[in-house]
Fold this protein.
Amino acid sequence: LTLLRDFSPLPIVYTVRTIGQLGRYSLIPSEPIIRLLELGLRNNVEWLDIEACLPENEIKSLCTKVVNQYNHRTKILGSLHTTSSQSESQINDLLDQVNLFGYSDILKVVTGANDESDCYLLHQICQQNKYNKPYIGLCLGTIGATSRVINKRFTPVTHELLSAAAPGQLSVYNLTNERIKRSLIQSKSFYLFGHPISQSVSPAMHTSSYQTLNLPYTYSLNESIDVSTYESIIRSDSFGGASVTIPHKETIGRYIDEVDSTAKTIGAVNTIVKRDDRLIGYNTDWIGIKKPIERLLDDEVDGIAIVIGAGGTARAACYAVNQLNLQLVIYNRSPDKAIELANQFNGKYYDINDIANASIIDPKRIKVIISTIPSKAEFTVPNELLAYKPIVFDVVYKPARTKLLQQALDHHCQIIQGATMLLEQGIQQFELWHQRKAPRNEMKSAVFNGIDE
């Protein structure tokens, strides 16, 4: 489990499969199985696979422990396997069992299949389950391959360079191709809206993710100074989603159906997500700021975060500072927007000319400095602010090493480049659009290609 955590960000589904369920562990006595399941629980696996054939008292005891003792951080997957094809009533009976007395978060039913129609029947009945819960429906053998194609969650796959672990198991590449052929995955167009955007690396970042996962999607620039020109694009059938940058983050909201509460608080939308036929606006910039800082901060830090600037990105930075439980201080040349930001995000505003005034801020308390102003300003801070080695973050990613970041390195401070923010917010965009894990390594390589980290 530790090795898996070290090498993969993917969620862990922890299974102890018994002999009767096509595994290797004896059901009697059940105590060794329960101990192994509790081991997974103690290691905070994301999903705990509990077989419905275990003794009722053991199931209830373990599920109660998941919910009460572990605050349901681990989700429960109830499962049953049978090697014969099943009728509608039999499938419903299996669904009742894998519901695990109401504790299951997802239902897994695996059956045999006499022909392809059994695959479709299994999915039809599972989709209509009376518990209205997500499901995994799989049929065994090569005949059951269709069930793997139409299954939407936790489908077992193999890699092209490996042999199948079981008859009917498909590689990721072949599974995706089959889904495209059956129109289960349809071509979609994704965009970056803004002006100017010709130098953006977002197309390279998102295109790399689609190529890695063999997805039939495109991501392209759509540059316009007039935000209204995007209305026809986002209402088209082929539209999948969009990134939004300056100058449209604060105005695109009028053309979509809903704005997420966090984006409302920040006052800016940088991501449009299509859910069914509704368009929802999100903000992922704050995540792109918070996550890299979080990785470098001490666990129980108490101090000040300075935000330089008061534009749209500064709003996301202020929100991120609040989420990090740091005291917010804003420096800006003009007071109007900065005072508004300070009031909204429970911070303090000072004129940029006072940034060197030690009577205002004790440099010892400064933990983070975030600059949100354009690179052409060639902004740096007074050296005194770097004396106690705060984390220095510049949201600008071109050039990769701004004057502020170079100054910070000269003072042996930890730095965060703007490209890191771009990557983190882009990963969050991908996962909002596609509801699956993003290929981080490939997206990172695309972002940093030609940029010195």
